[in-house]
Amino acid sequence: MAFKIYTKTGDEGETSLFGGKRLLKNNIRIEAYGTVDELNAFVGLVRDMLTDDASRSTLKAIQDILFTIGANLASDPEKSMPTPDIRTEDVLALEQAIDSMEHQLPTLKNFILPGGHPLVSYCHLARCVCRRAERQVIALNEAQPVESILLQYLNRLSDYFFVLGRYQGQLLKVEEVVWKPRS
Q1: β-pairing, 177-178 with 14-16?
Q2: 89 or 2, which is more confident?
Q3: Per-residue model confidence as pLDDT tens digits over 146-176
Q4: Helical (H) or strand (E) element with 156
Q5: pLDDT higher than threshold 90 for residue 46
Q6: What single-letter DSSP state applies at residue 106?
Q7: Where does residue 37 rank: exposed (0-12), middle (13-18), buried (19+ CB within 10 A)?
Q8: What is the C-alpha radius of gyration for the chain, rounded to an integer number of angstroms?
Q9: In this prediction, what percent of the chain has a pLDDT beyond 90?
Q10: What are the residue boundaries of the structural domains of the chain, listed by start?
Q11: CA–CA distance from 31 to each of 17, 24, 57, 131, 167 (Å)?
């Protein structure tokens, strides 16, 4: 018998965590890991558009970690279940990638607007979705504690996408779009 993607168990607006517990699909836990999943899809889109192998490799590692974060958030916190872990080294790897790109960029002297090239814009979309995921994990943490390393990683990841957008713009020889407020 072939595996079917649809189970019909969610037709009434509920879904299951790893461990079997049923929650409404608008539960903050489901929203949090659903947004991490959405972010992972954006990361895949950005990765598909990149031409430099170093950034593509970093984004593949980020996708693996985002899947791990999703698995952690999708696990029933009331059950002791083995879940993949996020490590301090994962946050440090993001910081090193940010530092490496920043060393090749001019000093940021103005606020910049998303845009200038589709790839740059997609990096900013990933940054925004990452910030939303972070906010939702913070909201979840208020109700049920989550590992602080998950929040640290998401916080650093949004910074990574901001710098990645600038870096890719430089590789593409695209001028940054500076915000000029009205006087």
Answers
A1: unpaired
A2: 89
A3: 899 999 999 999 999 999 999 999 999 999 9
A4: helix 148-171
A5: yes
A6: P
A7: middle
A8: 18
A9: 62
A10: 16-174
A11: 12, 10, 28, 13, 31
Q: Is the per-residue pLDDT at 138 higher than 80?
A: yes
CA dist 104 and 54 (Å) reads 14
Residue 31 pLDDT: 87
Q: Are 48 and 166 spatial neighbours (Cβ–Cβ below 8 Å)?
A: no
Compute CA 18 distance to the chain's CA centroid, rounded to the nearest angstrom. Answer: 21
Spatial separation of the C-alpha atoms in residues 105 and 10, rounded to whole Å? 48
For residue 120, give the nearest of 155, 159, 162 by alpha carbon: 162
Strand-pair category, 112-113 with 177-178: antiparallel
- Plot region of 19 (φ>0 → left; ψ -120 to 50 → alpha; else → beta): left
- CATH class label, 16-174: mainly alpha
Virtual torsion, Cα 86, 91, 97, 103, nearest 10 deg: 180
* Single-letter residue type at 86: I
Closest CA to 43 of 15, 70, 18: 70
Q: Which two tokens stand for residue 176?
A: 């940054």
